[in-house]
Design brief:
The chain is an alpha+beta fold. The protein contains 6 helices and 3 strands; from the N terminus they run H-H-E-H-H-E-E-H-H. Strand 2 and strand 3 form a beta hairpin.
Length: 110
């Protein structure tokens, strides 16, 4: 991941609604949720939700999967892990073993 991509992802997560959307999608796992259901669960109008989902998609934090007439969104855990790896690339002053608890905490089989 390069600096520009990392900044895009951090900016996407730096907004309250988008952070809530991403956290909701992380909780739902690989099944994801349709855009309308995300909007309903978070109490946000669908037009606004579409804009937020587009930002998260462009930042590489969610994936859109078409299902007939609706679109299902899933947290892109690879994109999120890439962001964390970028942030921790030079961690612990050359002693990456000190970061193992953090790395293990964010490792999942999704």
């Amino acid at each position: 991941m390069d600096k520009t991509t990392a900044l895009r992802a951090l900016a996407a997560l730096g907004q309250d609604t988008r952070l809530e959307v991403f956290r909701l999608l992380v909780r739902t796992g690989a099944a994801g949720l349709p855009a309308g259901e995300i909007a309903s669960r978070l109490g946000i109008i669908q037009n606004t939700m579409s804009a937020h989902l587009k930002v998260l998609d462009h930042a590489g934090l969610v994936r859109a999967e078409r299902e007939g007439r609706s679109i299902r969104y899933v947290a892109d855990m690879t994109g999120f892990r890439d962001l964390l790896a970028y942030l921790m690339e030079d961690c612990c002053n050359g002693a990456p073993e000190l970061c193992q608890p953090v790395i293990q905490a964010v490792t999942c089989n999704c």
